[in-house]
Amino acid sequence: MAIMKFNGIGITAMAGAVPSHVVENLKYTDHFSPEMVKEVVEKVGIYERRFADEKTCSSDLCFAAAQKLILDNNINRDEIDLLVFISQTADYRMPATSITLQHRLGLKNSCIAFDVNLGCSAFLYGMSVVYSMVSSGNIRKALILDGETRSKVYGPRDRRSAFIFGDAGVAALVERNPKFGDSYISLNSDGSRADLIMIKAGGYRHMSTPETLKERVIDEYGNMRSDEQGYMKGGDVFNFVIREIPRDIKNTLATANVTADQMDYIVFHQANNFINSYIAKKMKLNVEKIPHTIEKFGNTSSVSVPLTIVSELNGKLDGQKTLLMSAFGVGMTWASGIIPFVDCKISDIVEVENGLPCDEFLRRDYTPIEGGAEESTTNPKKED
Amino acid sequence: MDIKEFILKFAEEIEIENQEDLTPDTVFRDLEEWSSLSVMVFIAFADENFGKQIGDKQIAECNTIQDLYNLMKA
């Protein structure tokens, strides 16, 4: 059992960003009847989501969140020694998006920067990497930037995923400080279930061709998608989750020698409301300790855990608090964390449009990554 | 839980209006109320009431309510 333990390291500030465009799920009826949409929306408990426009990438959402965090907390950019960017919807196949963010955020060249590509449980993976590196001693401040634009991944004609996903970005500042007690992070993988959630084409096993871009009917319900769009075997994922997640949470709590009742808040990956309610019921958890954002932001993949903290625990993390975090997703991978928070400073969520923060103040020091003549000639457009 | 009780609970979970029409031989997939969402609901139902962990594949292999019941009793 791989449960990592850290001491004297914690998240001292957080900020979040979402696209300004709100999608009302009950009105998302271009491809399905209003009755069917209503049934799905009520079952999954997702009423609103944010969709990034064509010019907005995960990095832009993270840029806005990071600017907000740095400016609100008066952070000296030269003290940021590490930047880890978490996403499965990166800007490019190369270079790594973290490196472009090092430049855009005005961080120095000696700042370590790299990407973590993992999926819905990735925030805890990113934390484990950053906590480990910060433990090594010489890193003063580290930034975890976690952004996803899952609205661009799933097709609107596959009802099993069309109403679920939204876009967002989060920034978290990690520092060493003896005021933080022990953190426990459990990370797990099961590659035998790799085909439960997948985007089959567009990588190097099934490279993009005109064929992989074609939408076709994929099941007896008439759902349609292309191989370049993600799919999810919802039943199998659910079956997996209700077995493994309670078990991992119990193991992690036991390792930390605490109980769920001792947690101040329990933050779940916002997959859909049906799954989360079922796990809470099955584990007899106190639902008043479980903040949620699924109804207004949908499933934002790896961003959902930190976004729920930024959105719902703003003003509630003064003093010493302990959070249980739990997430699962594509891989399959699943993770649990028991994480101390001490006076964490949380900024208000900001909005992004056309790749830029709506708040002009956050645009200062903004450097576009593709300038003038060098701008890309390929501008892939989604087919409607 | 006998098959009668199973049918009642099944109808309740899947929110089937005309419960009296259901028999063990009813093809659940043909019911108006059955959808891809029902799969998730039924998986939760199986876990909660029978401690059974089933996935998409097992449900896909069933046709009648009796088949689902047998799956619970297997």
Structural class of chain B: mainly alpha
Mass-distribution shape of chain B:
globular
| Element order of chain A: H for helix, E for strand | EEEHEHEHEHEEEEEEEHEHHHEEEEE
The CATH topology of chain B: Non-ribosomal Peptide Synthetase Peptidyl Carrier Protein, Chain A
Greatest interface: A-B, 20 and 16 residues
- Using the CA coordinates, give the radius of gyration of chain A: 20 Å
The fold-level CATH name of chain A is Peroxisomal Thiolase, Chain A, domain 1
List the topology elements.
The complex is a heterodimer of chains A (384) and B (74).
Chain A: E1 3-7, E2 9-19, E3 22-24, H1 34-44, E4 48-50, H2 58-72, E5 80-86, H3 97-104, E6 112-116, H4 122-135, E7 141-149, E8 167-176, E9 182-189, E10 197-198, E11 216-217, E12 224-225, E13 231-232, H5 234-256, E14 265-268, H6 273-282, H7 294-297, H8 304-312, E15 320-329, E16 333-342, E17 345-346, E18 350-353, E19 356-357
Parallel strand pairs in A: 2-17, 2-18, 5-6, 5-7, 14-15
Antiparallel strand pairs in A: 1-9, 2-8, 3-4, 7-8, 9-16, 10-13, 11-12, 15-16, 18-19
Helix pairs in contact in A: 5-6
Chain B: H1 3-14, H2 36-50, H3 56-60, H4 65-73
Task: Give a short overview.
The complex is a heterodimer of chains A (384) and B (74). Chain A has 384 residues and is of the alpha/beta class.
Q: Could you please describe the fold and organization of this structure?
A:
The complex is a heterodimer of chains A (384) and B (74). In chain A, the strands form five sheets. In chain A, strands 2, 5, 6, 7, 8, 17, 18 and 19 form an eight-stranded mixed beta sheet that branches. Mean pLDDT of chain A is 93; it is low at 372-377. Chain A is globular. Chain A has eight helices and 19 strands. With 384 residues, chain A is α/β, with parallel strands linked by helices. Chain B has one domain (3-15, 23-73): Orthogonal Bundle (Non-ribosomal Peptide Synthetase Peptidyl Carrier Protein, Chain A), CATH 1.10.1200.10. Chain B is 55% helix and 0% strand. Chain B has helices at 3-14, 36-50, 56-60, 65-73. The longest helix of chain B is centred in the middle third of the chain and has 15 residues, at 36-50. The two termini of chain B are 13 Å apart. Classes of the chains: A alpha/beta (384), B mainly alpha (74).
